Structure formats: C-alpha cells, structure tokens
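Person: Please work through this fold.
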Amino acid sequence: MIDMTPALEISGLTFAYPDGRQALFGVDLRVAAGERVALLGPNGAGKTTLVLHLNGILHGGGGQVTISGLPVTPSDRKAITEIRRRVGVVFQDPDDQLFMPSVAEDVAFGPANLGVRGTELESRVTEALTAVGMLEHRDQIPHHLSFGQRRRVAVATVLAMRPEILVLDEPSSNLDPASRRELAEILQALPVTVLMVTHDLPYALELCPRSVILDAGRIVADAPTGDLLADGALMATHRLELPFGFDPSFRR
C-alpha cells in the first residue's frame, strides 16, 4: 500500500504576535513527499512566521502543523526534537549557521548533538558534503570560503541531519550567476521535500513546479509556478515583479 501521508500539512493556522499584530489567518497548506514548492509573497506577508511554525520555534496560535503525520507539539520535548530533525531550515545568511573551526565540524555538529558518533557521524559528514560538492573543503575554516561555498556548507549542515523537508530562505540571494546555477543543480538532485521562500521568481520557476502566494497572512494562490508568474494581474495585486524582459512562458 502506498503511504499517502503528506510531508507537510498545515490546517487552519493562525498566529498573533504579543503586540497584537495578527500575522496568519487560517492558513491551509498540504505538500506531498518529494514536492518542491516555492513560497512567494511581498515583504510582511507572513512567510517567515509560517516557516517558523514548521519546527515549533513559533507556536501558540490556532490550527495544526504536522510533519509526515507527526504533530508539531512544542510542549513535547521528545516530539519536537524529532520534528527539528525532520525539518531542516537553511537561513538566508550562511554565517548564521557556521560557527565551528572547520567545515567538517560544522556539518557534524547537528547529528553529534543528537548522539550520533564514530563511523556513523563520519559517514553523515561525508555524505552531506558530497551532496553539495564541498567534500574537498572539509578541513577548511568556513569563513575562508566564498559566500557561495558557505551557503553550500550551510545546506550540508542541514542534510547531515537527514531531514525529510528542506526549508530554504532566499537561497539565491547574494550569489553570483555561476554559484546560483551550481546551487540550483544541487537542490534539484536532492531526494527531499523542498519548501523555498524566495523573491527570486525565475529561481522559483526553475526549481519549483508549484508555487504558493502568501499575502497579509493568507494563502491567495496555489498553482503551477509558470501559471502564477504568467498572471500579470495576480502578480501586480500581490506586489510580485519579474525581472525586466523575463518571459515566464519560456520554461513552462
């Protein structure tokens, strides 16, 4: 029997900050295992708030988030530890994730914190660095690497946890064209579910067959990425703009 449990399911998610500002208004979202989905929307739409609910960093509103059938329950320490293994978040600035003396030690930090040791830990480090094409840099000081290399190492730190869902926050930001292409090739090859938060609409089209637009705390569109980007009225309404001269139908 095929397991139809979604990798991610959000039902009726609401959230307000302590100052009373309502950030999410009944968000519903279902992402199947293996899907690559872009989360689009203008600044202040609630994208970061939504993402921080996926591993329990934010909580306390209404609704429910489940990861492969496991509810995100921050009060259950054992469950939330497993959730944070299943959901790997790669931040926009790789320097937020790299703090150890060497690349290998940074990549080993997460699984070691879960008690992984010895040959299994070494295997995870090698596996993760190989996946992002950074194995030859394993003994280097992270902050001596280029920005694009540091971003790849940041991805490896998450892959070493063997997550089921990879959440990427603006993965193409500040990358030169070659680094941008190299990262895209790496992400396309990963056998995980991907949720990519981005303002880089061509990157969303390249990497994610499906996109969701979040605006003012509500999901306002959910469709194939090419269809959304080709809808000029929808794009304008939600303050999304393609680069000058870019034709979204070119890759549809």
User: Anything to note?
Assistant: The first strand starts at residue 8 and ends at 16. The chain has one domain: 8-251. The CA atoms of residues 25 and 150 lie 36 Å apart.
